Amino acid sequence: MAEQHRDDDYPEILPEDSRTDYALEAAAAAISLLPGLGGAIASVLSGWSVDRKRERVREVLSSLALRLANLQSDVANEYVRTDEFEDLLDEALRRVAAERHESKRRLYREFLVSAINAPGPYDEQLRILRTLEQLQAAHITLIRAILQEPDPKHVDGIAGSFEATLKRRMPSFSQEQIGDLVRQLNDLRITQLNPVGMMTARGAEDLRAVVQPFGKRFVEYILAADREPMDDRKGRR
After folding, report:
1. Integer Cα distance of 88 and 40 in angstroms
2. Where does a domain end: 90, 108, 133?
3. Is 230 part of a structural domain of the chain?
4. Which of 126, 175, 206, 232 is spaced 20 to 30 Å from 52 by Cα?
5. Is 28 exposed, middle or buried (0-12, 13-18, 19+ CB in 10 A)?
6. pLDDT given at position 173
7. Cα separation of 214 and 189, whole Å?
């Protein structure tokens, strides 16, 4: 006799609501531009509901479909049919459903685009996904500040510091807040940055070298997300 499962055997992300099933099927159909991906999405999203959280997922799936529209790859078609990819998709969309900030939802979309275009070792992909979950909107603001091109107006001074450069680029943040965010990015192995050390003004104006190899993956997600916003939705949901 088949094993019977109770409803509480699995932690439920979203309660069932058949009224939105057709909407999810439509989202999966949009992703079918890449054969096999629609089936993985349908499997992962089975039973999910709650309009607001489902809308976040639908938003990312629709945007993902646009990003994949020109992708024609036999490797990708095979990979999206694997259990490994379905596990990553499940992990990513669970986080999307719970994420209020659109800027972070765009990063999850770019993670999926990258995972499909260039599949990597599963453990490394999972590490990236878990690190993405820890990033706050303020961390993304800091990373953007780090990535800015040097401003010619500020390279000719006698001395400077990364701390002063970041404070100028992030005027709404206090030095204490910036220092705390820097320490957190260092702990995540995204950057290796000492904000208070003194150096030449020219050296202090260019922070891009502080991004670590692991952090460069996140830089690519942020740059891609900035180039490809989700749509005209703004703010939080």
Report:
1. 10
2. 133
3. no
4. 126
5. buried
6. 97
7. 7
Check residue 12 and give its pLDDT. Answer: 41
Look at the chain and report how many structural domains it folds into.
2
Please classify residue 126 by burial: count the beta carbons closer than 10 Å to its beta carbon, then call 0-12 exposed, 13-18 middle and 19+ buried. Answer: middle
> What's the burial of 83, exposed, middle or buried (CB within 10 Å: 0-12/13-18/19+)?
exposed
Is there a contact between 195 and 182 (Cβ–Cβ < 8 Å)? yes
Q: Are residue 116 and residue 158 in the same domain, yes or no?
A: no
In a domain, 236, yes or no: no
Same domain, 32 and 48: yes
Length of the chain in residues, anyone? 237
User: What residue numbers bound the domain in which 172 lies?
Assistant: 139-217
The H or E element containing residue 198 is strand 198-199
Query: Of the segments 67-71, 171-175, 226-230, which one has the largest average pLDDT value?
Result: 171-175
Q: What angle do CA 171, 176, 177 make, to 5 degrees?
A: 65
Do 199 and 162 lie in a common domain? yes
Q: Between residues 1 and 187, which one has the greater pLDDT? A: 187
Structure tokens at 91: 């992990």
pLDDT tens column, 134-169: 999 999 999 999 999 998 888 877 788 899 999 999
How far is Cα 72 from Cα 186, in angstroms, rounded to an integer?
38
Q: What is the pLDDT of residues 14-31, one digit of tens each?
A: 444 444 555 556 565 556
Helix (H, G, I), strand (E, B) or coil at 161: strand
Q: pTM (2 decimals)? A: 0.73
Q: Which two three-digit tokens encode residue 86?
A: 């379905």
